[in-house]
Specification:
The protein is an alpha+beta fold. The chain is 40% helix and 19% strand.
Length: 129
């Protein structure tokens, strides 16, 4: 049991390092980014990028992943966290975009994958059921 616990702690530390690296590098590239701190059911994502007022979407929520690639699971989490971010601030969710940034093993942070949906990326209206 201790081997599993030790592996989980290592994975958690590696994930935290990846979050910090991405945040620091994006700051260095001139983005206005900060770490979000809520966890659990009220989680709002790992980072928020504040965008210039000229853009339709004023905020970008980033969920960072350093794990096995599971796009459906990752996007579901990112969209749920986007909605929590908007709700906590009284924002229209349409003013908040969500993406997942997935680390590529052995590659630079610049070569990480950015995951979205067609609806999110092109700002399409919600379809009725």
């Amino acid at each position: 049991m201790t081997d599993i616990a030790a592996r989980n702690r290592r994975n958690k530390r590696a994930g935290a390092r990846w979050e910090s690296e991405l945040r620091d590098e994006l700051r260095g590239a001139g983005l206005d980014i900060e770490r979000l701190r809520l966890t659990g059911t009220e989680d709002e994502g790992d980072h928020v990028v504040r965008r210039a007022p000229a853009r339709h979407r004023r905020y970008l929520i980033i969920e960072t992943k350093n794990a096995k690639f599971e796009p459906g699971t990752f996007m579901k989490e990112a969209l749920r966290e986007r909605d929590a971010f908007a709700a906590h601030r009284g924002l229209d969710p349409r003013d908040v975009e969500a993406v997942v940034v997935v680390r590529r093993r052995g590659a630079s942070w610049r070569d990480a994958y950015v995951l979205s949906t067609v609806a999110e990326f092109f700002d399409l209206p919600v379809e009725s059921p």
